[in-house]
Every structure is written in C-alpha cells, then in structure tokens.
Amino acid sequence: MKLALIGLPGSGKSAVFACVTGDSGCFHNFSVDEPYAVTVLVPDERMDYLRELIEPKKFSLLHMEVLDYHGLFAGGGSRDSMLLSDVRDADGLVIVLRGFTDDAGNAPDPLADFDSVCSELLLGDMGQVERRIKKLRVQVTKPTPSQKDDRAELAVLELCAKCLDEGRPVSDVEMSDAEHKMLRGFRFLTGKPMMALVNVDEDFSVSEAVIAKLGERCRSVEAMKSAIEMEIAELDESDRAEFMADYGVSEPAACRFLGAAMKMLDMRCFFTAVGQDLRAWEIPAGATALDAAAKVHTDMARGFIRAEVVHFDDLKELGSLRAAKAARKETAEGKGYVVRDGDIINIRFNV
Question: Residues of the chain whose pLDDT is less than 50?
C-alpha cells in the first residue's frame, strides 16, 4: 500500500509526515524530482492479542509506504505536472490542509485550499485525457485490428473529459468492470481514494460544517495537531499518556492516521497462523478466499481446496481456536467466500 501526502506550501505537510512516520528527514529533503518515502508498520491491537495467544516465533504486521511530496502551486505548470506524474503511482492521496494562522497572519481556509489542490488534480487528469483522445480520434478512422477497442476506449474517455470539464472527478463516471480495466493504465489522480487531513494548532478547530463539506468530496476527513504530536513523539513513553490527556489526544498520530488510511483505501486485513509464523495481510474490500490464497502464495490459489475461517471477534470471545472450533465458529468456505476484516484464515490446498 502506498500513500502520497500532497498539499499547498505552508500546510505543514512535512510535519504531518514526521508525526505519522517518526522520521523527520523530510524536512531536509530538497529534491524536487523525488518524494521522501518511509515504510511504516500499521499498528493493530488484534495482532497484539494473537501474539499473546499463539506465541509465534515470527510475526508480520501490515506495512504502508508513505511519501512526502513538495508542495503544489496553483497553476504550477511543468513543475507540478512532473510531481503529479509521480503521485499517480500511489494507491491513495492524503491532502494536507492548513488549519492554523500562517506567518503572514492569514487565517486558515481548509475548503479553499482543498479546492485549489483538487483543481490541480483535475487539470493533471484533463491534460492526460485530452492527449489520448486526440490520438484516438485519428486511430479510429483507420481499419486496424484494434479499431473496435480504440472506439470503446474513446467513448469512455470522452465521458471522462466531460466530467473533468464540469469540475468533477473521474470517480464520478459510471464504468463497467471492463471499462475500469481498460483505463487502468491512466492511474487517474481524481479516481483515487482521498483523505482530507486538516493540520490544526491549539487556536483553531475544524467546524462540523467544514468537516461535512470536505466529507462530500472525499472518503475520509481527519484533523491533526502536528506540532503537539511531534512533541508527544519525542517524550519518553512513561510521560506520553499524561501529556496526551492534557491535550485531549486519545492515541498517537500514527495509530489514528494509519487506521483512517486503511478505511480510506477500503482495505481488509486478514490473518494467517502457519506453524510459528503469524502474519497480517491486506486485501481489497470484496476480495474472495481465492484472492486471499493468491495473496499468501500462488500455489495456494492454484491448488485451492477450501478456506477454514474463524473471525477474530469469535476467537477472542471464546479464548482459543480449539474453543472456537468446538462452538462451530470455524467454517469451511469455498473460493467465492468474501473475506471479512479480521478473518483468521487457514488455506487447504494441494499441488
């Protein structure tokens, strides 16, 4: 999983990045061409419980790559075009918005800043779509083997162009699964899941009205006091709880952010416990037991027999896998079973 942090200059994006990753190297990263990237582990209390219960020799948490990009400029031209081209590789976007008075005394306006960033994303997608449409309009006039496919692609891209021209994201265009697959290579910026993260200070809080309006535009809305969170991260663990309580912070920034990111990406987490190896795996919502098998190993998918599934909540309630089996909470599922978040899965296969 790969997340891109983007935002206007002065939004405190690098401070947010440092809070989430525990790495402040982004403040010293002056490369325009390359993002600053850190891979972080995704905390999960369920994994803590399973480790105590199973006592594995090895365990693996989910991990997520977080990338800090230089600030976007409204109408940024070729510089922003290059940046946005790299951002297309991300699975999701986190738009960091200024929620504090800047050094010039300007009051925060998260909604206006969000619109500015989204305008750049729209322009980036529009340029890509227009170039491809121009080429396809010539290609479809030629009796080539790909003429039928080219016409189908052109029709969908013209719908995308219309949507973008109206100021709406590509995600608003209704497409079939085949059409989504056809356009997968475009990696549309406005087709990616988005989180709006308002970076606030002690003097500013995000109103419910602003949260509601941002929520209409993206999957998730979060607020973070990055200056305070950085102070918390630097404290000894024994002092953190009291400091967090004083500032009304329920849990560290990394836990809140990464949990919200998983929901924003619409990912599910399942677990496997094979021998002394306990692992967490991510999989898209709607994925099946066969997809889960392929995630673990292609041989498991190739020789799939069944999936033995018990949900974490049932296991925790009953206290052991043996008790869960005795209570018939473990079920045998076929290839089409839709994996739930928190499933513990044992794949039976033969190759």
Answer: 78-79
